[in-house]
Amino acid sequence: MRRARPASRREPTIALINIVFLMLVFFMVAGTLTQPLDRDLRLVDTAELDGRAPVDGLVLHADGRMSHGGAALASAADYLAALESDAPGTVRVIPDRALPAGVLVAVARELRAGGAERVLIVTERALP
């Protein structure tokens, strides 16, 4: 009589593969919920500020160009006209790090003159 071999025990790799696949799908979906900013835009560094996620705002490039939602704008008044509300309360400006401060101040003044109650500047939070 032959002796029965003990059955080899398999590792549960299928369950591990399923979990990794579900995590991959989750991160793919979670990473595409917001519209990405322009690739050549580098945000200003700041430290110790209450940060918020960059929302739909006026993007100011280093060369003075303006864009909103990927579309080029000629002036800050065009951005205010593109907003859905009749009287914009808070307006967010997303400047490039290399943008001259004078241009940023001029655009902020133009937004205030156009009816914006508050002009917030979106920056990158610096790590300690």
Question: How would you describe what is shown here?
Answer:
- The chain starts with 12 loop residues before the first helix and ends with a strand.
- A hairpin with a 5-residue loop joins strand 2 and strand 3 (66-68).
- It has helices at residues 13-30, 76-82, 101-113; strands at 45-46, 58-60, 66-68, 71-73, 90-95, 118-121, 124-125.
- The chain is built from three helices and seven strands, in the order H-E-E-E-E-H-E-H-E-E.
- A five-stranded mixed beta sheet has the order 4-3-2-5-6. A two-stranded parallel ribbon has the order 1-7.
- The protein has 128 residues and is an alpha/beta fold.
List keywords for this structure.
128 residues; 30% helix; membrane; 3 helices; 7 strands; alpha/beta
Brief write-up:
This protein is an alpha/beta fold and 128 residues long. The chain has helices spanning 13-30, 76-82, 101-113, and strands spanning 45-46, 58-60, 66-68, 71-73, 90-95, 118-121, 124-125. A hairpin with a 5-residue loop joins strand 2 (58-60) and strand 3.
Q: Any idea what the radius of gyration is?
A: 25 Å
How would you describe the shape? rod-shaped
First and last CA, distance? 73 Å
Major sheet = 5 strands, mixed
Poorly predicted segments: none
Query: Widest sheet: strand order?
Result: 4-3-2-5-6
Transmembrane segments: 12-33
GO biological process, one term: protein transport
GO molecular function, one term: transmembrane transporter activity
Keywords: Cell membrane, Membrane, Protein transport, Transmembrane, Transmembrane helix, Transport
